[in-house]
Amino acid sequence: MIAADYCRQMARYNRWQNKSLYREASLLSDAERRLDRGAFFGSIQNTLGHILWGDTIWMSRFAGWNPPPVSMAESAHYFPDWDDLFARRKEVDQKIAIWASQLEDEALLGDLTWFSPSINAELSKPITTLMVQFFNHQTHHRGQVHAMLTGAGCQPDATDLPFMPEDA
User: Fold this and answer.
1) DSSP one-letter string for 56-71
2) Within-domain flag for 83
3) DSSP per-residue string spanning 122-139
4) Is 168 inside a domain boundary?
5) Over the stretch 1-38, which tens digit does the pLDDT of each residue have?
6) DSSP class of residue 12?
7) Is-contact 107 25, C-beta < 8 A?
8) 116 contacts 123 by C-beta, under 8 angstroms
9) What is the DSSP letter of 144?
10) Which end of the chain is less packed: N or C, by CB atoms within 10 Å?
């Protein structure tokens, strides 16, 4: 079973990795960020938008945030303006870090029940499973962005958790 410390570590990892990816993506032109590079969501911009959408929808379930005003089908275009996307990413990462810093092990016990518009059904799963899904979803799609950035000649930080700086 995971514990609150896992969530705190992964929140730090999330912020560190996003800082790296956004730093490098900012070096590209808007057209380069929007170029379809064959990833699931096509471009760097779209994939980063989807990650932010995913973080927001999960945090609406975990911590009572407002859910995103767009559906999963529209998630790639959650924040179509780069500056708005970047600013919102920083804000969300800070809020996730604060949430994780206050999380207690007891909050990870039991199940979470929610309605998923994506499959039009109510679901109930162990909270620990959903926490792993939350952080795994970020990591999965950031890996895609990392590959697209590397292919575009950028040099994002390593993605290995053991290499995360202590001050991340």
Assistant:
1) HHHHHHHH-PPPPSS-
2) yes
3) EEEEEHHHHHHHHHHHHH
4) no
5) 799 999 999 999 999 999 999 999 999 999 999 999 99
6) H
7) no
8) yes
9) H
10) N
58 Cβ contact partners less than 8 Å away, ≥ 6 residues apart: 130, 133, 134, 137
How many other C-beta atoms lie within 10 A of the C-beta of residue 8? 16
Please state, in angstroms and rounded to a whole number, the distance separating the CA atoms of residues 82 and 71: 20
CB atoms within 10 A of CB 84: 11
Q: What is the maximum alpha-carbon separation in the chain?
A: 46
Task: Tell me the average pLDDT across 118-147.
Answer: 96
The tokens describing 107, both together, are 């909050």
3-state secondary structure of 116: strand
- Provide the CATH number for the domain around residue 36: 1.20.120.450
Query: pTM, whole model, 2 decimals?
Result: 0.96
Answer yes or no: is 42 within a domain.
yes
User: What's the domain count of the chain?
Assistant: 1
CB 152 within 8 A of CB 32: yes
| Domain span holding position 49 | 4-125+145-156
